[in-house]
Amino acid sequence: MSSYVLIDSPGVPIKAWTRGVDLADNAIEQLQNTARLPIIHSHIAVMPDVHWGMGATIGSVIPTVGAVVPAAVGVDIGCGMCAVQTTLTARDLPDSLKAMRLVIEEAVPHGRTAGRSRRDKGSWGEPPRRVTNLWKAHLAQGFEALCDRYPVLVKTNNLCHLGTLGTGNHFIEVCLDEGERVWFLLHSGSRGVGNRIAMVFIEKAKKDMAGHLGDLPDQNLAYLSEGSVHYADYVEAVLWAQEFARINRQVMMEHVVSAVRGMKGLPRFEADRMVVNCHHNYVAAERHFDRECLVTRKGAVRAGAGDLGIIPGSMGAKSFIVRGRGNPESFESCSHGAGRALSRTAAKKRYTLDDHIEATRHVECRKDSGVLDETPMAYKDIDAVMKAQADLVDIVHTLRQVVCVKG
DNA sequence: ATGTAC
């Protein structure tokens, strides 16, 4: 049974669930910077997948009182995972999984969204009616209210990105659990519009603090203070973007399920036995240690007692469906994945395409040089990461990928 | 991560 270790801090305590996993020096330095902010409630919690990120480390939980740090939430507001268990089993799957991969790629726009004049596959030309209806029912009104005050948000990819995957480490997978049941798993966030919202408020925070930015250990830790217009607007905007991200994942999952249902040769199946949709890049108002605060989980998942969460490994590694243990010292949180061991550039330098092909030989996935920065060797050992957080979550299901779609 | 400009 693991527990946290204390990292030397010039400010509030830094409690780290990192026993048995590497902790890079640049991550420690960043944690110490964050711990010095005057707005932290109680302490900072560090997850075993921690690594350097813009502003604050990815894989950390930062509770604040009276302020919020937009760059700590990050540019992919509401980024997270969605998973469903189906009633299909491994023996229902065809020998060649390529057809299934193509069907999923066809059903969900993925990849870069190019400029307006160029052809692109990353957004809807014409969003399906289901997407437009969800937008109108849950997102349109809030978006108009934000656009009234922030007209720069008007011309963003918003509706045309609802139900689309994106690029980088965003993916869709078909997995098998320990009982050979088929699952669908996907990773995505709030796409273009969430990115723009984040950029706008990261700038506002720096401007609002212009007079005393020099007092901060890092300019990217600039915060918006409660009582200011920008603080209230950011909280409104970030919650809206998080809802966009959640619905984005829901729509993609619906399209994956219906696309696979349309494949010839598969039996009828259900996909509603176990459904999980969780953010791992977000802010939420919660109560911890007898105080209302804003909890920023940057690469961390809520793990309250009984909460279901998703912890993906990497291409070719295991992923986990977990149940939270509600550990108060972690602000009821767990890691969001394996965490990078190597930066994208370092991974591309260190490994060859042949290394990647060997590491992913059991997975129907991209095997070109464009995904070398996502190769399994670029990530920490997921088993060590899970062991280090044994007092934060219990493992409910262990999944292995058989198909992986990347943007 | 995303969009846009180089």
Explain what the structure shows.
With 407 residues, this protein is α+β, with helices and mostly antiparallel strands. It has a single domain (5-341, 379-406), classed as tRNA-splicing ligase RtcB. The chain has helices spanning 25-35, 70-73, 98-107, 129-149, 191-208, 229-261, 344-350, 353-359, 382-388, and strands at residues 5-7, 14-16, 44-51, 58-64, 67-68, 80-89, 171-176, 181-188, 224-225, 274-279, 281-288, 291-298, 300-302, 308-311, 318-324, 333-335, 393-406. The strands form four sheets. Strands 10-6-8-7-17-15-14 form a seven-stranded antiparallel beta sheet. A six-stranded mixed beta sheet has the order 1-2-3-4-12-11, with helices on both faces. Strand 2, helix 1 (25-35) and strand 3 form a beta-alpha-beta unit. Helix 4 (129-149) runs antiparallel to helix 6 (229-261). The relative contact order is 0.19. The model has no long low-confidence stretch (mean pLDDT 94). The chain binds one DNA strand of 6 nucleotides through residues 74-76, 79, 112-115, 122, 156-157, 166-170, 189-192, 194-196, 198-199.
